[in-house]
Amino acid sequence: MEYRIERHSGVAPYQQIVQQTKQALRLGQLLPGDKLPSASAVVAAAAVNPNTVLKAYRELEREGLVDTRQGRGTFVRASLAQPGTQAGSPLRDGLRVWMATARADGLEREDVAALLAAELDVFFPRPVDAR
Amino acid sequence: MTPSSGPASAHHGDDASATAPALEAVGLGLHGRDGWALRDGSFTVPRGRVVGLVGPNGAGKSSLVAVAAGLRPADAGVLRVLGHVPGSPAVLPRIGTLFQDRPLERRFTVAETLRLGRDLNPNWNDAAARAIVDNCDVPLKARVGRLSTGQRTCVALALALGKQPDLLLLDEPMADLDPQRRRALTGALMTRAAEHGTTIVMSTHTLSELHLVCDYVLLTARGRILIADDTEFVQAAHSLITYTCPAPAAPSLPPQAGTVIETRRSGRVHTALVCFPLSTEGAASTSSLSLEEILLAYLRNPQASPLIAGSTRDDAPSAGTPDSHERPTQ
Amino acid sequence: MNTRPRIPRPTVRTAAGLARLAWHQHRTAHRTVLALAVLAAAWALWEHHQLVTAVEHWATTCPNGLTDSPPVCDHTPGAVRTVMEQAHPPLRYLPVAVGALLGAPLFAQTLQDGTHRLAWTQSVSRRQWAVAKLCVTGGVTALAALLLTAPVTWWWYTIRHGRTATGPIGTAWRDSTPQSDWSYLPYTGPAGVAHLLLALTTGAALGLLLRRVLSAVALSAAVTLALQTGLEQLRPHLLTPTIERTSSVVFPNRTTNAWHLDQGYTHADGSLTETYNCPPGSWEAVQRCARSQHITGSYIRNLDPQQFLPLQWLDTAICLTVIALLATFCLVHVRRMKTR
């Protein structure tokens, strides 16, 4: 698991780590029992303040996704992977078919993204207090 | 993964210096080239923080490094380093310093320079020093005088890190490095902070990346300390409040808005950068700011009321002082 | 703040590291000085051989000395002149060169470049750093001084010894190396080393004070010269001289190898005067004139040959005392220095 910190995005770096971890949990790239990279490994590669990583891990721990074992590291506790999100699942295959159709119809990346975002908001409305 | 005090401090630590702040200034005054670069500066840098030392040229950043390194005494007031007098035998082995002009023996080879560090420092870590030098592709046999400025920075930084200090004082460490080395060396510094809890104080002009690297900021301008606080707290404390005025000439801000750092107006739109906003009544919108924007606003307005951890603002209204702003704790 | 100093006493490694730094910083100067000393020593040894050969040759050619001899004996051999005359100026100004070129840059160079901060931010005290620099360059200077002083001392020992010899060879030494004024005292024996070390320390202290190489070089040269001149002036007054009197205006014979300080005339009451106002004239006229001025005899003031070594050690002791003072100044001052 390697974190990629967008240096000039408006998103706080610790949130980027949280989001990327959750993304990996959803996609099944991280499974329960897996060890998250140590803070020093993350900061060496990403060149960010160590507290950023610690804060992100604390947040993940608070959400019950990971477990910090004293002196040993931080481990994945729960998976966010839904059956449908795995590669090869019918749900994902369906999305792939839809994507292929969209491309064949001449849609650009931005068009697809806008379309997805719009439908996303319809089917999965954002919580009101989102920050 | 909790930052430990590291092997260096283990046999140094008496009780007083184990808990003492990395830097503690009381009424600190520093002479610059013309007049006072800093007057009556009081601030504290807690241990284990990565501190961005920000300010225009001539604002006493290099002088502060020189005083903290014990090269010269403060011109007024007191500066304590890890609880000790700067430059005293107790503190000398525990700080690593990188000066702006990277003083090195030009006729030494890189290997000879590192050997010097090994000979003269009891806690020397040769692997750590060599890792830095390797990172920059500096050949060990090269004479220091023939290296590029960036490579010289690497060698000087290797000396500072090889010492395994509890406090690193770095004067514009990344100024003359290419992006790739900048990234690698920042990573190395952050690793040092993560693994050993080393306090890092680095002066910099690169404000856009400050929030990624630093968790504490010391901002100085026109002889004053303007900000000495946690970066997250600084960000949380400031808001940009936009008002829409009925007429362009109308009186602008409600007086109870908070500590106003900067105001701007453009036609009917009036924005104010406010520290500890008390009331957003009448505001059209309120938004948060990036650390860079806040620092720049203070640099543009050096007469602004300072924000210094551990001290109360003279002009901050006492009622409703932001207990709600939870100061992040280490 | 009463904290116990945490810099441990220098370990062998720290001491070696500081010494290596001190050597490296001035390695060109150190190597040059040692190489020049070796060359000078070789030349001085060769010159000693020349001197002895020349005087022995002179003794066989002019068995009766200067008094009754072939015209060739009117000239002192070249090797003698080299030792007695030409070697003096370089030996006299060597301390000035050492003070200006080796002493002055010792601290001034690193302070001017700002590289002192490299050492001052390692885990060693400034004092240890200064001690290492003084010791290493002091050691190099002492070694070079020893290399040069030993053969020069041998010259003078041979000459002094030769003058007291009997027979034609003694006459040859006395005649070819006529006067002994002990000017070689600061170039030989322990004083030879001490004077060069004094010059080094003077330059080092001034460099530490001025922090600029050029001004330190100039001032070191001036101060070293002044110190050497001062010691020269002081030297005749350090020990009590012997006064030899005669009861006529004819001066007593000079003692071989003594330092002839001055001569003059004695009054009836025993007081001394260096000159008297008598116009040159016949022997009787001079005698009469002298008597009219109550001059009853003449005297010469000497430092005896056996006072040479005590005087040389005294001179050395003075140098060592000043060296100690200057070194102490350096070690006290370096701790208090404020730099960028």
From TrEMBL, chain A:
UniProt xrefs under PROSITE patterns: HTH_GNTR
Pfam families noted in UniProt: GntR (PF00392)
An annotated Gene Ontology molecular function: DNA binding
Every HTH gntR-type domain range: 11-79
Residue stretches in coiled coil: none
InterPro entries named in the record: Tscrpt_reg_HTH_GntR, WH-like_DNA-bd_sf, WH_DNA-bd_sf
UniProt keywords, alphabetically: DNA-binding, Transcription, Transcription regulation
PANTHER family on file: GNTR-FAMILY TRANSCRIPTIONAL REGULATOR, HTH-TYPE TRANSCRIPTIONAL REPRESSOR YTRA
Name assigned to this protein: GntR family transcriptional regulator
Origin species: Streptomyces aurantiacus
